[in-house]
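Hey, resending since the last one bounced:
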Amino acid sequence: MRLPETTTLTLSQQQGVLHIVLDRPQARNAMSLEMVEELMTVFDLVESEAGIRALVLRGGGGHFCAGGDIKDMAGARQKAAEGDPEAFFRLNRRFGEMITRANRLPAVLITVLEGAVMGGGFGLACVSDVALAAGDARFALPETGLGVIPAQIAPFVVRRVGLTQARRLALTGARFDGHRALNLGVVHEVADSAEELDKKLAELLGQVRRCAPGANRATKALVLDVDQVPMEQLLDRAAREFADAVNGDEGQEGTLAFVRKRAPSWAGDRD
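The structure tokens again:
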């Protein structure tokens, strides 16, 4: 599988896992429009390649993502001044399109959160299936302090931490570390050293590889549709997908592996 050429991202693949590093360290990996478009291109690949079982998204240079890119904001302001009333709308909405796709990617999305995790970076953490954080990572929704709003990420923050906490975080711009993020439910695990963080990531990827790829994709789609699809309709669909899974290759292999007390074939997948 050929990986796309990117300028703001560094990509690598290993054992069915696509590693994506946000690579604008000079800007603390602020989310530029170019980075958004490159992520969308990567998502095209993930959606078309069943062999990609997980994505690991992290930042280079000690930071995950410090939010939106000021240069893009300045560019939109210039376009608005030149008579384009939709410049800010298009810029903001494109990020929303990207984070919505990230939320529904068929592969397992893992975020590794270090340094600044703010604004759009906070939003990406909130759409990950599993989030690992450094204890000294710095989280915040700083938008209202800048006179703007967390427009595209607010709904995902609400889904992640609940309405009560989301209101407090968004309306105060409160800053907190990885341990507090764990208590709030933003992240799932915290590590207090780089070595421990990498160890937790390796353990997590081992767990993902023990799960059947097709079953994982179907399960993710199912849980994301809770509260989006009427319950009886969702349960009917789930029953049909369960029957298909039991009779499918993965279901048969999983049952056989259990009976024979061995690992299923997908647990040893290699590129």
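The domain at 9-209 is CATH 3.90.226.10 (2-enoyl-CoA Hydratase; Chain A, domain 1).

Sorry for the duplicate.
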